[in-house]
Specification:
Keywords (chains A, B): Amino-acid biosynthesis, Histidine biosynthesis, Metal-binding, NAD, Oxidoreductase, Zinc
Number of strands of chain A: 14
Shape of chain A: globular
Distance between the termini of chain A: 79 Å
EC number (chains A, B): 1.1.1.23
Cofactor (chains A, B): Zn(2+)
Number of helices of chain A: 17
Oligomer: homodimer
CATH superfamily of the largest domain in chain A: Nitrogenase molybdenum iron protein domain
CATH class of the largest domain in chain A: Alpha Beta
Pfam family, one (chains A, B): Histidinol_dh
Strand order of the largest sheet of chain A: 1-11-10-9-12-13
Largest interface: A-B, 125 and 125 residues
GO molecular function, one term (chains A, B): zinc ion binding
């Protein structure tokens, strides 16, 4: 890890830089696959599954029998862990339910918001060596609480045409309605446009490789909404002299193992702590199976020594990390100053993996500095707040004249007239 | 208006069709302007202002003196209307403040959400013949309530280099921090990248022509968030035999006058009502200054006769209108069945222009069927919900083992280890 001591504020922009993501080069390939799926539906999806996932499929839908089989394949111990995580995620997201109140802005003018679930949502779960069944819980649990009528999940099968059993178990626990064997761009296309077997959805959630990201971006320009733009995962750890270097090192490594483009940033007021963390990183790194990936990610990563707690916080807010771990003596005070972050972990025991799996918070979070403008996935992500209003005759009297004046000044006479005909009617 | 009687459900997709929007052809022009603004900043913005708005500017910033002058130019009557509208918008959006609660998902595992304002937001207000000062109130009022530190507004000047005075007055009333004379693509670029005088923002709000839409879409792929994808404005009116045909006709016309691509849909269970509305539309149309535009929009518009109130509601939900007006005897029951809409107006007195200007609800709403997945602008649009968590030793005991198991099953050993080092520490 690169060490930067007492940087000037002019150097912060450089420290906050992310690896550059250019997915425009993929766009041509992505567009070809998308338009093919749009035109030919299931047939195209099956062909791409054969080409990219080497799976020959007769049907895209996962059957109940396949899920039953998955239940037998997953250990009782892991199932219990999935159920515990689901309970916590459910409890935290259920507490986010919105209750609107009717507001009388003037006598006879009543306005309110109502939260209504998006009818159909699509969840994408990547395949590959590590089956992200935890992401199934994170995306499907709030969809179910919101009341989405249709919760569709696409995930690529292996060469035998099978989906990882832990993914199927998690999907059943969380209440997914339909599961399809489809990965990559073809899965995103299937959910965006609908095929003979995959329903068209209104919003697509979930992580993926660069092709999946590019496909989500593309369909979000026209067909569907998406959860958020994506980028490589990242963590920022703020540690003072009271932090536990073993814990801090483990937290940095847990982020770095995600991929070679992951980013890890340690900001500390204690040079001694930084040195201890560095030694611990070296020691723990050698014990990890994903050592090579982790090491590459650490090469892009930084340890920054700063003069004060305020500066730690200011630099973190400038970086806008996806995950922010605060291991300082006054973590509560510092938490109050967080302006830009996806999810914040306070104190020495709140490791990122607690929130990644089982504490109850969501792990689908804004990366790449998007925390400046985006929230992580939460119950709101599955709902729309629709506004309602009712006016009585008195309401028309209270605001009618102002509406006429403003519409007239905007030269929108038909707008004005819509109020005038009502004012005339009640004045009769 | 085209009349369709008792359509079969297979014909609904055709009825719900919007005019096709293809802005890809504009993309090359848009990208040229954006990259020029990114490179050359203020100088480029000034050159494009001269070329497109025929305004020669020495400085982009609107001065306090110019706002003072605007205050003198706007009538006291209009100012009072702006203040009344602002009060109502303020009251309705202030009531949307989020209060998070700490949730203990397990003993020692505490999670919560905190709503934090986006630090810097940019508002775009189009110029042209009709100065949309009402949109200034709609976009700046919630930004101020949210606590955005910097509220930047860009709007094109006229040939004399002046901004419409009502826009400046509304901006001062609503609490905009900085106003710049810049329109079109160059304004979007200035706010997305920042220039010498215009601050870079994290999210851009506001309507605009096709170039502005294309520019917002483009910068949203990398630099900033945007409020929502945009399309032509639209209304759907549900009217049974108890509706007032004069009011219904006025409401249809008020939407149609926006532009030739505006869409208007009347769904009714009463053929008699439809005929009366049609006669009223003809009569009122002849009195409107924007008759030609309005007439063109009506040519793309439809009146649909259906068999029941349930069918009215179902067709409306399939259409997913930006504005939905329900003028039926049982409007409260029908309101409960709204699934897809931006903003809903209930009963005969709640005309769309009430909400467009002064009732308190926001008028920046999802068009083009995006109401299936997007909310209109509301207080949330200016905030992020950041999650926080704290674990005690007991918290680690409660969920630690589940985290280890799940991380292990996902083959993320460093994630597992981050929990293991803590479990080991507390077991000592």
């Amino acid at each position: 890890m690169n060490i930067i001591k007492y940087p000037k504020q002019e150097e912060w922009a450089e420290i906050c830089q992310r690896p550059h993501l250019d997915i425009t080069q993929l766009q041509a390939t992505v567009n070809t696959v998308l338009s093919d799926v749009r035109t030919r539906g299931d047939e195209a999806v099956k062909e791409y599954e054969e080409r990219f996932d080497h799976a020959v499929l007769t049907s895209l839908a996962v059957t109940e029998a396949e899920i039953d089989e998955a239940e037998r394949l997953v250990s009782e111990e892991l199932k219990a862990a999935i159920v515990l995580a689901h309970e916590n995620i459910h409890q935290f997201h259920a507490a986010q339910k919105f209750e609107g109140h009717k507001i009388q802005t003037r006598e006879g003018v009543t306005c309110w918001q109502k939260s209504v679930a998006i009818e159909k949502v699509g969840l994408y779960i990547p395949g590959g060596t590590a089956p992200l069944f935890s992401t199934v819980l994170m995306l499907a649990t709030p969809a179910k609480i919101a009341g989405c009528r249709e919760i569709v999940l696409c995930t690529p099968p292996n060469r035998e045409g099978k989906v990882n059993p832990a993914i199927l178990v998690a999907a059943r626990v969380a209440g997914v309605s339909k599961i399809f064997k489809a990965g990559g761009v073809q899965a995103i296309g299937a959910m965006a446009y609908g095929t003979q077997s995959v329903p068209k959805v209104f919003k697509i959630f979930g992580p993926g490789n660069q092709y999946v990201m590019a496909a989500k971006q593309q369909v979000s320009l026209g067909e569907v909404a998406i959860d958020m733009p994506a980028g490589p995962s990242e963590v920022c750890v703020l540690a003072d002299e009271t932090a536990n270097p073993t814990f801090v090192a483990a937290d940095l490594l847990s982020q770095a193992e995600h991929g070679i483009d992951s980013q890890v940033l340690l900001i500390s007021t204690s040079e001694d702590m930084m040195q201890q963390v560095q030694a611990e990183v070296e020691r723990q790194l050698n014990l990890l199976p994903r050592k090579e990936i982790t090491q590459k990610a650490l090469e892009n990563s930084r340890m920054v020594l700063v003069a004060s707690a305020d500066e730690m916080m200011a630099l973190s807010n400038a970086y806008a990390p996806e995950h922010l771990i605060i291991q300082t003596k006054n973590y509560d005070e510092m938490a109050a100053q967080v302006v830009n972050a996806g999810s914040v972990f306070l104190g020495q025991y709140a490791c990122e993996s607690a929130g990644d799996y089982a504490s109850g918070t969501n792990h689908t979070l804004p990366t790449h500095g998007y925390a400046t403008a985006y929230s992580g996935v939460n119950l709101d992500s599955y709902c729309r707040k629709i506004t309602f209003q009712h006016l009585s005759e008195e309401g028309v009297r209270q605001i009618g004249h102002a509406v006429e004046l403003m519409a007239g000044a905007e030269q929108l006479d038909a707008h004005k007239n819509a109020m005038s005909v009502r004012l005339n009617a009640i004045e009769k």
